[in-house]
Amino acid sequence: SMGGHIILLMGLNNECCPLSWCANKIKRVVRSTIAAEALSLQEGLEDAIYHQELINQILQIPFKIPIIAYVDNHSVVEALESTKQVDDKRLRIDLSAIKESMIKNEIQSIKWCPGDLQLANPLTKKGAQCHLLLHTIQKGKIKF
Questions:
Q1: How far apart are the C-alpha atoms of 31 and 29, rounded to whole Å?
Q2: Strand bridging mode 16-25 / 2-10
Q3: What pLDDT, on the 0 to 100 scale, is given for residue 144?
Q4: pLDDT band (50, 70, 90) for residue 87
Q5: Phi/psi-derived region of residue 17, left when phi > 0, alpha when psi is between -120 and 50, beta in every other case
Q6: pTM of the model
Q7: For the residues of 114-142, what is the DSSP string, one character each?
Q8: Do 63 and 53 contact (CB within 8 A), yes or no?
Q9: N or C terminus: which one in the chain shows less Cβ crowding within 10 Å?
């Protein structure tokens, strides 16, 4: 399975600047789409937390820049919001790590977005529409 993410620094009026992107194989073999999406999300969140800390140290900001993640797999969002555990025991550990980051306020929220609006799709899916990603990079504005 492939995973990909894009880290954007958002400003006012949906202005943004790409900080980082990644597209590669997921680090372990997974048995389900939800596991692949959750592992990709976890990697993207780790990257975002790293950039958050880096920016805070450079600019000496007294508050943490909020991290909002968008994922196009509704099952991942449901699993993170639910108290019911998923069947895959290894996935439980990964989801618990993400939940812990949310409890610690390292991550503000994780939201679902439709697949056709997911900016990272062109990084991992052959034939995915790339016009939204190109617009975002060229214009410095994101369409929601």
A1: 7
A2: antiparallel
A3: 63
A4: confident
A5: beta
A6: 0.90
A7: -GGG-TTHHHHSTT---HHHHHHHHHSB-
A8: no
A9: C
